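Q: Here's a chain of 415 amino acids. Please give me its 3D structure as tokens.
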Amino acid sequence: VPGVTSVVAAPAYAGIPLTHRDHSSSVGIVTGHPVQKMSNISWESLVGLDTLIILMGVRNLPEIVNHLIEHKRSKDTPIAIIQDATLYTQNVLIGTLGDILQKARKSEIRPPCIIIIGEVVKLRKKLDWFKKVPREREVAAELRAGAKKEIRKNRPAIIAITERGLTLARKIQGLLGKADLFIPPALAARGSDSVQVYQNSLKELVAGLFTTYRALIFIMACGIVVRVIAPYLKDKHTDPAVVVVDEGGNFSISLLSGHEGGANNWAKKVASLIESRPVITTASEVFPRPSVVVGIGCHQGVSRQEVKEAIFESLKKAALSLKDVRNLATIANRKNEKGLIEFSQQYGIPVETFSLNQLKEVSFFSEPSKYALDVLGVKGVCEPVAMLSAQRNTLILKKIKWKNVTIAIAEVNSS
């Protein structure tokens, strides 16, 4: 099986064994990382295995669940998502293929995670060693509580260690409006009320700043920054954004917590202020995907299959995939339509609804609908709800009509 390794024995995670004589005799391991193309995986072979292990698959969870269900894996199949397996910060989410997407959206579980699918998940209550080590559970609770309670300054800290770096740092501080500037004693003579002189080493300064600021901007070489921040790195969900700007002001580099911590945005902001070049390396920025809203108009009694076919074909026409869809949108009196609800639940895509009065406020239409005018008193449904939800006055795909469904697509306004 491409990308899959079968094993006969494996350890347990979060009290969940990967094999068990009464529940599982075969195991498949596959990567679920966002860069992995899910379509390249042999799902027909995977569904026949008793236990399936997916590594780094949280971001692709909707697609993974969809592929398994489409290949006849029961919606009642148990599934466990385990964050920080075997560590004090271990966190576990249990569900089934039918409800895990809804549970995951409401949970605080975050990557890195391992996903276990199969009947062995039911053994967790019996074998959960984690519950049998009280102190470790207390530590885990304290760590999670501490992360939630931690309050950091929203304004960035700027650190400069040379006269040339200080000149640039002052410029950035002035343009940002709110920022704290730190310099070593050697530059104290050039200090002012807006500059703080640190007395100890740069490494000790960073130790304090790392937990008190949401963003750190270093005016120095990347190598220096890497060495001083290394001892304090935890993970991308708790580490502050770190941006490095060379003393010549040529580049603004997003070094740490680019996406989760906001370093990409800080790098772009600083670059725009001093007219330097932002350097971004996170995959989501290097290979951006559009975020769109699919507007839907439908007749009463429309089936899930009709909704699915209409949406998939429309996305194909617009050169998009289901991954690009932020949400669906429709009129308020269709919010309980069974076929629409079933599609939403199957793929984990929320539905936003709008009232008739809201639809009447939208002036643009490619082709007014006689049915909508006669029955609802509005010119159309799919186009106005798509634009209202995306907060756009244009469409990337105008109305396409199917038997019982109409579809329009608008790109989300990210400004």
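Q: Can you summarize the key feature?
A: The two ends are 44 Å apart (CA to CA).
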